[in-house]
Specification:
With about 270 residues, this protein is α+β, with helices and mostly antiparallel strands. Helices cover about 45% and strands about 10% of the residues. It has a 5-stranded antiparallel β-sheet. Strands 6-7 form a two-stranded antiparallel sheet. Helix 4 (about 80-90) packs across helix 13, helix 5 packs antiparallel against helix 9 (about 165-180) and helix 5 (about 100-110) packs antiparallel against helix 11 (about 205-215). The protein binds a DNA duplex (13 and 12 nucleotides) through helix 6, helix 11 and helix 12.
DNA sequence: CTCCAGGGTTTGC
DNA sequence: GCAAACCATGGA
């Protein structure tokens, strides 16, 4: 179905801004997955996009996945200093995806001390090894593994996905969710500070990963994760100070503009 | 070969 | 409380 989107919406920038690891852009078409759903999106010009889904699925899943109710153009213009003005302008088109909570948690535990291509490789191997093969029409893909599937995985099989020392972290997170000790959906009712603390009780989840999960799966846009690249920006352009908290609910979006910008203008 | 990657935990002071 | 050592692995 054709969807008109007048606000910022660039498929390549959304996909390759480092917030997600399974979607990809190929031959002018973006491919996204969410749980057992798959979606292709093509830009047709004139603010019009072809979504390969029904109206019902668009409204129940993809509209919130792409955060389409938020006005990014107005947020982008709130950048105050010259660095963030440049970053926001360069990154125009990025949106913060609201991704599956368990997938985001596991993916960002894996992300520590890995390059983005290496993260993508590990996540894809996990899906092929433990994900349910899902067929939609003539198309098929591997869904991200369920907590139950990962909770009973063996150390050696997980290690074969290139997870290294993170294997016990993945198991701890999966067992906590599969056992019901953690209900990731119910955690959405917590305040930012409470959710932050709850996530950090999982092994391998520190400040940065917790903030990434909050921003990319719980839509807590006031969270601005500080990784090595954001730290370099703070050291280079802000005398070591953090420029993001002042943007309050837009802090995470500004952070994502900065991250995408610096990835493409490495110092 | 060496160095680094969207960090976190453990240890020592 | 903070700083430093340590962690597996793939890619440049």
């Amino acid at each position: 179905m054709k969807i008109k989107i007048s606000d910022d919406f660039n498929l390549e920038k959304i996909i390759y801004s480092g917030q997600c690891f399974r979607p990809y852009y190929y031959d002018g078409i973006g491919r996204f997955t969410f749980q057992n759903h798959i979606l292709y999106v093509e830009f047709l010009g004139d603010c019009t996009y072809d979504f390969s889904c029904s109206k019902e699925e668009f409204e129940s899943i993809w509209s919130s996945y792409f955060d389409l109710d938020r006005d990014y153009a107005s947020i982008r213009k709130k950048a105050k200093d010259i660095f963030l003005k440049n970053a926001a302008s360069f990154s125009q088109g990025i949106r913060i995806l609201k991704q599956d909570k368990f997938e985001t948690l596991i993916s960002f535990i894996i992300s520590q001390r890995k390059s983005i291509p290496a993260i993508r490789g590990s996540v894809e191997k996990l899906c092929e090894m433990y994900g349910e093969k899902t067929t939609v029409g003539e198309d098929s893909f591997y869904a991200f593994p369920t907590p139950e599937a990962l909770a009973k995985a063996s150390d050696s099989d997980l290690a074969s996905c290139g997870l290294g020392y993170r294997v016990p972290y993945i198991l701890d997170a999966s067992i906590k969710v599969a056992s019901g000790e953690y209900n990731l959906e119910a955690l959405d009712n917590l305040s930012d500070d409470e959710l932050f603390s709850a996530l950090k009780e999982i092994k391998g989840v520190g400040d940065k990963v917790a903030n990434c999960v909050m921003l990319f799966a719980y839509a807590r846009t006031s969270r601005a994760p500080v990784d090595t690249w954001i730290q370099k920006i703070m050291d280079t352009y802000y005398s070591g100070n953090n420029p993001f908290p002042q943007y309050k609910d837009a802090a995470g979006i500004m952070q994502q503009y900065a991250f995408y910008y610096i990835q493409n203008h490495k110092i």
